[in-house]
Amino acid sequence: MRNAQTILRNINVSMHDGSALVLTGPNGSGKTTFLRMIAGFSRPSAGEILWNGHDVTSAGVFQQFKLQLNWLSMKDAIKDKLSVLDNVQWFEVLEGKCGKSMDALELMGLGRLANEKARMLSMGQRKRLQLARLLAIDRPIWLLDEPSVALDTEGVRLLEFIIAEHRKKGGIVFVATHLPIEIEDSMSLRLPPRFPRRKTFLDMVHSF
Ligand SMILES: Nc1ncnc2c1ncn2[C@@H]1O[C@H](COP(=O)(O)OP(=O)(O)OP(=O)(O)O)[C@@H](O)[C@H]1O
């Protein structure tokens, strides 16, 4: 439920180590809501989200489960006044890790911009920075909301590559997207429109 309205119903998905789920569906169909529920930002009004058989919302489990998750969304949480490198290292330090930030930036094609202020980055470069952060933090479950928006063709290929590599290590990936993405052996779930339109776009055009 969101705002007292039922957004998602009758969804049953089971993920194992190394698996990937691609969520698609029209605007407002609930893709972000689905990811938010997995992340524990929203509670399902019915049903359960289980992690290793335990309800993720129960005390004790939630704190552990949260540490497995890496969230990437349109809100990029990039600090414009910090350098590109600091924007990755800051999260790495918070995570109690170190040493992967520069390699992650290099992989995402941002090595030469590491010492620039993040405000200098283009939209696609900001997305690459988010992906570098994902790599540096290196948590097992990735929740990616529209990860390819603003990426160029090479950026999308890199995204597909890091997803494949993550899965090889046993990582789990959820991707909500409107854009085509190639993820081998992924499951796909297409959410239905919440409010089916009475008229199609072409009907509207012809009525003018
Ligand atoms: N902040 C909010 N508060 C209350 N209801 C919300 C909020 N954000 C979204 N919703 C409701 O949840 C529904 C699903 O939204 P959600 O963002 O999950 O869809 P989506 O499939 O990710 O859409 P899009 O493709 O546009 O990103 C929306 O139709 C809206 O009614």
* Residue windows where pLDDT falls under 50 for at least 5 positions: none
**Helix-strand pattern, N to C?**
EHEEHEHHHEHEEH
What portion of residues belong to β-strands?
Answer: 5-15%
Number of strands: 7
What's the shape?
A: globular
The number of helical segments is 7
- Kindly state the mean pLDDT as a whole number? 91
Q: Profile the largest sheet.
A: 5 strands, parallel
State the separation between the terminal residues, measured CA to CA. 37 Å
- The secondary-structure class comes to alpha/beta
| Strand ordering within the main sheet | 4-5-6-1-7
Approximate helicity band: 25-40%
Distinct small-molecule ligands in the complex: adenosine-5'-triphosphate
Task: Give a topology summary.
Elements: E1 20-24, H1 31-39, E2 50-51, E3 54-55, H2 61-66, E4 69-72, H3 84-94, H4 101-107, H5 123-137, E5 141-145, H6 153-168, E6 172-176, E7 187-190, H7 201-207
The structure holds adenosine-5'-triphosphate.
Adenosine-5'-triphosphate (ATP) binds at residues 2-3, 7, 25, 27-33, 194.
Domain ABC transporter: 1-208
GO molecular function: ATP binding; ATP hydrolysis activity; transmembrane transporter activity
Keywords: ATP-binding, Cytochrome c-type biogenesis, Membrane, Nucleotide-binding, Translocase, Transport
